[in-house]
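Can't paste images in this forum, so I'm doing it all in text. The chain is below; anyone willing to post the predicted structure tokens underneath?
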Amino acid sequence: MLTLLVAADFDGDGDGLFVARRGLEKFLKNFSPPGHFSDRTNNLGADGPMTTHWHQSVVRLAPRRRGFHWVTDELVGGVAETLRELRVGLFHAFLQHTSASLIINENADPDVPRDLEMSLGRIAPESFPYRHTAEGPDDMPAHVKAALLGTSVSVPIQDGQLLLGVWQGIYLCEHREHGGSRRVVVTLHGEKR
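Text version of the structure:
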């Protein structure tokens, strides 16, 4: 059973929040959920002292035509050496653009990315009377698609591998006819082996 601690500081002097914070710290010190790998207060892992590691790289993806493009290997390749060192952690990829997206989807049937592109084309068609047209007819629909799909994905890491499902892959969704090179910031955070 999990108890929720709610605090209020009615007079604004901060003492109510301090008491709540102390109570929460005491609770967290004694709480260890299943699969809990570390105790933040003393930096101990399940097998003794642990070392958390951060790594960040920018991966440049080559220009691609409009569509959904499998990029898992390219993104992993940009951080492969560090990824292999992690026992457990998180892989996060963030696309630094507003007219493309990153998603996780099926990587087995080539019809899936084609159908996704066709579906999004119907949701945000170029023929819609957009006001933002200064960058071409495919620009505003690209912003709409990016807003719907998002620009980042996170995947758990275990024993130096991404824990993607059997049929999952990471896709760059290029929403422009000629979007150019795309930059992806890949951040790894985890416990070394």
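The two ends are 32 Å apart (CA to CA). The chain has a mean pLDDT of 84.
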